[in-house]
Predict the 3D structure of the following.
Amino acid sequence: MKFLTHLPSFCLALATAALISPHSAHAATFAEGTDAGQTLGTAKIVDTSAFGTSLDTITGNIPVGLGRADLFQIYLTGGTFSADTNLTTGTLTDTQLFLFSASGLGVFWDDDAGTGLLSQFSISNVTAGIYYLGISGYNYDPISAGGQIFSGTSGGPTGPGGASPLTGWAFTTGTTSDSGVYTISLTGATFVPEPSEVMGLLAFAGLGSAAFLKRRRLV
């Protein structure tokens, strides 16, 4: 019975793997183009290549101006995920990276673990699904209704607003004027599935569950 409880998730995982596998050998870069938003509703959706195509790089630009961040909706394949800005050159020399769940809850962040003042992180045991990846210059941080989501220089959502979803961004202390082009290198990510592909995943998972249960009844 315990196995049956987890059957829909198991079938969904199989369906996801089936859709991803034909494209997993290919990798592609996503270019920001028009300015990405910094909220869940205005985030740039990374969907310009087929679902399952490995997303290895995001390039973009934080324009000159007081307080700017870019937010991207991506798909994580599960297991280990990493992101870094070590290939970034130009005037954006002090980056911050943030990962959020599909509902906007903080997952992980880093400030200076990369080269110089650039950011990088790697996390394991990630559940496959939609996530949001954010980038900003130093000291421009994500907040929720409860306040600052992250604290320290790297780690999980331990700030006073860590239990609530992203609502905006703010300077926590002082200001920063970091701006310029950036490059985010990724592992464990793909382009976001189209709505039709999502429906296909759910249908496949449902058929798999029904077939298994029918077989169980016949035995």
